[in-house]
């Protein structure tokens, strides 16, 4: 029986080659998209799921509020971990790790030690870390490996990098130097192969940090008021413990040791929260770690919706074309029923045909998935691979997908086809029964659904692209073109070295202007402090962000001055500038009124005078509002003089002045910092990176729009072929009676245009609501213009009419004699 089904299916496919090809292409696009999106979503949703009792593992995070402005960090104050161990109940294990980025040195036989610069996955850790998280030990013991100072545990991958010629047992006892700290290897653990954000590879014993060395200073073990994002605490709760109860204990401990003190506003606070382990990979407020990117669940859910829509489009095509072909198989069904076939057997026959088509589509998808992943390699993790051998869950997913698509696509056509009555179909009356009308309305409804999905994707793509263009071309309040930014190496930098480099840069003829300071106007790096202003009646306390630069900073970035004067080299300790937002916070509607006012507790607790008010400029992406800002000059703090801002002279047409300038800058860099790599970036490229998520979204939507239009047009082509074939004689009669080609094409296309307009009316309110929800994340945003909707409708109309015209024009210009020659 199965063999017979298979033969009949193949004969049917061969007889209707074009329809079969359209179905396979439509389904393969939907299934390929679903498979690739499954790989992406599955990758992100499986992070850190493999640890035992992962539901009891939490990271302690800090929440801040200052005058109603929230702040978040994954770090905690130094004394908290010790207080948790001694004072909190319900906590099974507490592990305090501190993230470092040292240079690593491995002793070599010749030419001195091998150096690994600024390794970012090195941590101070205690033995509790390996009791909370699951690692396989290849050498050494988890009980003793980190019990003494100056010990280190390595992952197998890192150990092989440091000592490629030694076995794991031979590595025990070897010495690794971290900056100046010499640590002895006491253990090797297997590098975690599962998806995880815990990608640390060097674990230095926590006791290596003492009150007498630099590591001890970093930990700030006695300062309840200082918080570092590098100071991370993980806890594993006891089986019966309540996370809410433990969290309350932590906040009580903090209040006991750090009571409110004078000068802190009443609406300012610090609190701790327990962040579940499964939230690390998705919470953008805290971030996972500096070296690990977070994923957005909203983006993942959006990808799933895209996959579902594209898969649905392929299924709609199948249902449309199969039901449209129903009349052509009417006699076959009548004969089968007359010969004794039951309706169940016919349903199985038609479902098996759908299964074979879906299976072909899946095979195409399996072949194309690696190629599609390469297309998106720029913004997906390189760990995402279509590895069907080592990922059995993919096979299971494909099996479920084949069954689901087969039923979704084939069930209704199978019911319709198997329901024909033998007496009617053998009398050529199959088209006269009521099912014809129902099938026509179903096809129209499904076609409208296709157009709704396609137009939604078009509208979303246009809006996202419009917002990205708006963000990248908006006047941010400063110049961003032809500016290079370089940062001196923080370990080797000194004020003297940077000033020498500054003079060398100023001597390069292709450079127009150089400024030294810290962060550029628009960057992810910020420094803030609490300052106060007394207006005679009350004290206004404000969290103010600070930027440091020299007297050329504002001139180089062309930041406008609204009132007062710019800073001079002598203003290091007496005067500073504020932005217009801060002037308004202080109550000055006219910027000139702020000139001469004094602010307390700024820049090392000094009282300084406002001498100028700058125009507002964006310090972050336009997702965030502009905040109060102070600009100061510093001549002594090396961290405030770590960045060089270099404005290049205009380049002549076809010239290579910028290339010459960059080479000269690199040469000057190596003269001052010979052991550090020269790394530079153009400032406008840095700004564009702030909108990488939106650009990735735009790329995905562009692909989704293109694929949805392509699938919809494939379905239209199939329906156009079917419709013109059914109306061949009608077209011939009309031509004999004098109808022109244009009239016939218009007649065949009118229904299609009406369906597109109906879809447009349905999709407009849906798209408008979705666009508004997406735009809520932007403080400054473009408008949702009427032409976005109009362009979508016109674009869809053109694509559909052009696609169907291949068949309608062909039918309209055909010789009517051929269509009327035979009955």
TrEMBL record:
Q: Where, if anywhere, are coiled coils annotated?
A: none
Source organism of the structure: Mucilaginibacter gotjawali
Q: Where in the cell is it found?
A: Cell membrane
Protein's name in the database: Putative ABC transporter permease YknZ
Q: Give me the Gene Ontology terms describing cellular component.
A: plasma membrane
**Molecular functions (GO terms):** transmembrane transporter activity
Its placement in the membrane is given as: Multi-pass membrane protein
Enumerate the spans annotated as MacB-like periplasmic core domain. 20-252, 447-618
Top-rank taxon:
Bacteria
Q: Where are the transmembrane segments?
A: none
Tell me the ranges covered by the ABC3 transporter permease C-terminal domain, including all copies: 305-420, 705-815
Q: What PANTHER family does its record include?
A: ABC-TYPE MACROLIDE FAMILY EXPORT SYSTEM PERMEASE COMPONENT 2, MEMBRANE COMPONENT OF TRANSPORTER-RELATED
Record keywords: Cell membrane, Membrane, Transmembrane, Transmembrane helix
Query: Chief localization class?
Result: membrane
């Amino acid at each position: 029986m199965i063999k017979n089904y298979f033969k009949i299916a193949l004969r049917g496919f061969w007889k209707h080659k074009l329809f079969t090809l359209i179905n396979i292409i439509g389904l393969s696009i939907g299934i390929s998209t679903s498979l690739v999106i499954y790989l992406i979503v599955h990758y992100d949703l499986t992070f850190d799921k493999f640890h035992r009792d992962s539901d009891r593992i939490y990271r302690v995070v800090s929440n801040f509020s200052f005058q109603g402005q929230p702040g978040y960090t994954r770090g905690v104050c130094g004394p908290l971990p010790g207080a948790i161990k001694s004072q909190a109940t319900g906590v099974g294990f507490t592990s305090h790790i501190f993230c470092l980025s040292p240079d690593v040195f491995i002793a070599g036989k010749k030419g001195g030690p091998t150096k690994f610069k600024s390794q970012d996955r090195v941590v101070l850790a205690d033995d509790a870390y390996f009791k909370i998280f699951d690692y396989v030990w290849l050498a050494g013991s988890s009980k003793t490996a980190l019990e003494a100072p100056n010990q280190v545990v390595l992952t197998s991958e890192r150990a092989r990098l440091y000592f490629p010629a030694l076995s794991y047992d031979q590595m025990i006892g070897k010495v690794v130097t971290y900056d100046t700290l010499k640590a002895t290897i006491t253990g090797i653990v297997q590098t975690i192969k599962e998806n995880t954000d815990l990608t640390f590879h060097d674990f230095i014993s926590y006791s290596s940090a003492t009150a007498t060395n630099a590591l001890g200073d970093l930990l700030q073990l006695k300062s309840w008021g200082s918080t570092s994002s590098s100071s991370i605490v993980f806890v594993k709760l006891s089986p019966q413990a309540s996370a809410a109860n433990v969290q309350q204990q932590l906040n009580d401990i903090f209040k006991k040791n750090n009571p409110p003190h004078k000068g802190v506003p009443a609406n300012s606070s610090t609190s701790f929260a327990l962040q579940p382990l499964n939230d690390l990979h998705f919470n953008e407020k805290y971030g996972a770690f500096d070296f690990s990117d977070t994923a957005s669940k909203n983006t993942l859910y959006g990808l799933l919706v895209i996959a579902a829509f594209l898969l649905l489009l392929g299924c709609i095509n199948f249902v449309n074309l199969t039901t449209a072909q129903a009349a052509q198989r009417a006699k076959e069904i009548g004969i089968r029923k007359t010969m004794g076939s039951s309706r169940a057997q016919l349903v199985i026959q038609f479902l098996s045909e759908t299964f074979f088509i879906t299976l072909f589509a899946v095979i195409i998808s399996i072949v194309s998935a690696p190629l599609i992943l390469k297309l998106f390699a720029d913004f997906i993790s390189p760990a995402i691979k279509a590895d069907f051998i080592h990922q059995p869950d993919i096979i299971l997913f494909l099996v479920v997908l084949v069954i689901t698509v087969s039923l979704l696509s084939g069930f209704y056509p199978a019911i319709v086809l198997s329901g024909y009555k033998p007496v009617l179909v053998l009398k050529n009356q199959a088209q006269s029964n009521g099912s014809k009308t129902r099938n026509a309305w179903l096809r129209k409804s499904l076609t409208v659904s296709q157009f709704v999905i396609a137009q939604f994707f078009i509208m979303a793509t246009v809006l996202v692209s419009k917002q990205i263009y708006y963000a990248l071309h908006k006047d941010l309040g400063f110049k961003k073109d032809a500016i290079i930014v370089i940062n001196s190496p923080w370990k080797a930098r000194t004020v003297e070295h940077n000033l020498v480099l500054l003079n060398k840069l100023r001597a390069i003829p292709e450079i127009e202007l150089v400024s030294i300071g810290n962060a550029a106007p628009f960057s992810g790096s910020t420094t803030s402090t609490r300052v106060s202003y007394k207006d005679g009646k009350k004290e206004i306390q404000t969290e103010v962000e600070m930027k440091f630069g020299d007297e050329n900073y504002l001139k180089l970035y062309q930041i406008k001055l609204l009132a007062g004067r710019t800073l001079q080299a002598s203003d290091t300790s007496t005067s500073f500038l504020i932005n217009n937002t801060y002037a308004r916070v202080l109550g000055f509607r006219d910027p000139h009124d702020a000139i001469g006012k004094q602010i307390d507790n700024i820049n090392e607790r000094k009282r300084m005078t406002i001498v100028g008010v700058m125009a507002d400029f964006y310090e972050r992406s336009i997702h965030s509002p502009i905040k109060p800002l102070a600009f100061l000059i510093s001549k002594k703090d090396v961290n405030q003089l770590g960045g060089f801002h270099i404005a290049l002279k205009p380049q002549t047409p076809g010239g290579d002045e910028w290339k010459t300038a960059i080479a000269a800058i690199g040469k000057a860099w190596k003269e001052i910092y010979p052991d550090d790599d020269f790394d530079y970036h153009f400032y406008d490229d840095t700004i564009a990176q702030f909108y990488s998520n939106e650009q990735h979204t735009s790329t995905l939507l562009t692909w989704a729009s293109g694929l949805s239009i392509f699938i919809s047009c494939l379905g239209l082509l199939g329906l156009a072929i079917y419709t013109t074939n059914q109306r061949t004689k009608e077209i011939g009669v009309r031509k004999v009676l004098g109808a022109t080609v244009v009239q016939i094409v218009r007649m065949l296309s009118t229904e299609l245009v009406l369906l597109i307009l109906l879809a447009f009316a349905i999709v407009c309110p849906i798209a408008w609501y979705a666009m508004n929800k997406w735009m809520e994340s932007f403080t400054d945003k473009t408008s949702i213009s009427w032409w976005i909707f109009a362009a979508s409708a016109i674009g869809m109309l053109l694509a559909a009419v052009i696609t169907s015209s291949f068949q309608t024009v062909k039918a309209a210009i055909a010789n009517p004699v051929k269509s009327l020659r035979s009955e």
